[in-house]
Amino acid sequence: KQEVTQIPAALSVPEGENLVLNCSFTDSAIYNLQWFRQDPGKGLTSLLLIQSSQREQTSGRLNASLDKSSGRSTLYIAASQPGDSATYLCAVYNNNDMRFGAGTRLTVKP
Amino acid sequence: KAGVTQTPRYLIKTRGQQVTLSCSPISGHRSVSWYQQTPGQGLQFLFEYFSETQRNKGNFPGRFSGRQFSNSRSEMNVSTLELGDSALYLCASSLHTEAFFGQGTRLTVV
């Protein structure tokens, strides 16, 4: 059974800092991995999708990497801003089944 | 292009009642998945529908059921509501495997 873990559970950084969020999964047989952002009480916003054959994806200040063999993905956020404050979740997909981590709650202080 | 629409956004129900939630996917998306999100359990998968057929099911009691119509719109029903059913219910639609989420329905059972 696939298990997804996100470390750390919470992170507080000053504005402008670069940061890395981690996601690990137990079964490397995944079809893709997706990073989401969730604001309090809201739905999930898709940030980046990495197919299993890809190593990384970039969108603006965000860069996500995938190492299937080690069961890890990282989300790199450059030059963080207070508006980046949210919970970030990763999810792995395989066989019509998407499994989520518990998320990392990020606070960026002005 | 319209996103995933969930109605209603908020609901308050009494224990023992039943409730129906609705999800309209992005046009052209045939897969709709439902999730329950609570502070203690995180995001838990309920079920997935594809072309009106339930393709995958999570580990929830039979009180939770769903269906999908020919236009891909989906409904989720919970019967005999319990206090523990209070949660944010999210639906996601996908064309291939990238998931797009709605804003959710906040259900409170009193």
What would you call the quaternary organization? heterodimer
Query: Using DSSP, what is the number of strands of chain B?
Result: 11
Helix-and-strand structural type of chain A? mainly beta
Averaged pLDDT of chain A, please?
Answer: 95
The main β sheet of chain B shows up as: 7 strands, mixed
Number of strands of chain A: 11
Terminal CA distance of chain A:
41 Å
Question: Span between N and C termini of chain B?
Answer: 37 Å
Q: Let me know the average pLDDT of chain B.
A: 94
State the helical fraction of chain B.
under 10%
Please report the number of helical segments of chain A: 0
What is the general shape of chain A?
Answer: globular
Class based on secondary structure composition and strand pairing of chain B: mainly beta
* Biggest interface found: A-B, 22 and 23 residues
The main sheet of chain A comes to:
6 strands, mixed
Q: What characteristic shape of chain B results from the CA principal axes? A: globular
Portion in strands of chain A: over 45%
Q: pLDDT below 50 for ≥5 consecutive residues: which ranges of chain B?
A: none
Q: Can you tell me about this structure?
A:
- The complex is a heterodimer of chains A (110) and B (110).
- In chain A, a hairpin with a 2-residue loop joins strand 6 (56-59) and strand 7 (62-67).
- Chain A has strands at 4-7, 10-14, 19-25, 32-38, 44-51, 56-59, 62-67, 72-77, 86-94, 97-100, 104-109.
- Chain A is mostly beta strands and 110 residues long.
- The radius of gyration of chain A is 13 Å and the shape is globular.
- Chain A starts with a strand and ends with a strand.
- Helices cover 0% and strands 55% of the residues of chain B.
- Chain B has no helices and eleven strands.
- Chain B has strands spanning 5-7, 10-13, 19-24, 31-38, 42-50, 53-57, 64-68, 74-78, 87-94, 99-101, 105-109.
- In chain B, strands 2, 4, 5, 6, 9, 10 and 11 form a seven-stranded mixed sheet that branches. Chain B has a four-stranded antiparallel sheet with strand order 1-3-8-7, with no helix packed on it.
- The mean pLDDT of chain B is 94.
- Chain A binds chain B through residues 31-32, 34, 36, 41-46, 49, 89, 91, 93, 96-103, and chain B through 4, 6, 33, 35, 42-43, 45, 48, 50, 55-56, 88, 90, 92, 97-104, 106.
